[in-house]
Write a structure and sequence with these properties.
Helices cover 18% and strands 34% of the residues. By secondary structure, the chain is of the alpha/beta class. The chain has one domain (2-164): Purple Acid Phosphatase, chain A, domain 2, CATH 3.60.21. Strands 3-2-1-9-10 form a 5-stranded mixed sheet, covered by helices on one side. A 5-stranded mixed sheet has the order 4-5-6-8-7, with no helix packed on it. Strand 2, helix 2 (43-52) and strand 3 form a beta-alpha-beta unit. The relative contact order is 0.21. Its EC number is 3.1.4.-.
Length: 167
């Protein structure tokens, strides 16, 4: 069996955008699980994504008590044989791989956010680190982004960074 995932983070609605981009809503309808790595800002985003499909998410540093009461700081699940963890912040890019190996030793895939910078690396211990960027606030990036991927029998594959056209 294959499980298809949508990865998003740092939606910052309504501060950075009024609504989720149509590309994210379309992608959410085509996956088995929506993963949000925090900084939703509005509980309405959680409710909207939950109406589109199952959601696994965490709260971020910009999320208030309404989201913190509904979401964990770290989420963990085993999905099709892949041990997945989700967290908002992992600290500076320098030394990230070693820090995450130490912090998440029994994890195959760590999804994180906070920086708004897409990230896809594998640590020395084999932990896959993915940050989908932000679909609403590109900051210094050339485009707003999100990711999709698939999990099958303990493998992570078909990781795609999707760029959202401006306007």
């Amino acid at each position: 069996m294959t499980t298809r995932l949508l990865l998003v983070a740092d939606t910052h609605i309504p501060k950075r955008a009024r609504v989720l981009p149509e590309a994210v809503r379309r992608a959410a309808c085509g996956v088995d699980l929506i993963v949000h790595a925090g900084d939703w800002v509005s509980v309405a985003v959680f409710d909207e994504l939950s109406a589109l499909g199952p959601v696994q998410g965490v709260w971020g540093n910009n999320d208030g008590d309404d989201l913190r009461s509904r979401l964990p700081e770290i989420a963990r699940a085993e999905i099709d044989g892949v041990r997945v963890a989700v967290v908002h912040e992992t600290g500076p890019a320098t030394g990230r791989e070693k820090r995450m190996d130490a912090a998440f030793p029994d994890t195959d895939l760590l999804v994180f956010g906070h920086s708004h910078i897409p990230w896809d690396t594998v640590t020395p211990d084999g932990l896959r680190l993915l940050n989908p960027g932000s679909p609403t606030d590109r900051r210094r990036q050339p485009a707003c982004t999100f990711m999709t991927l698939a999990l099958t029998e303990g493998t992570i594959h078909d990781v795609v960074l999707h760029k959202i056209p401006r306007g």
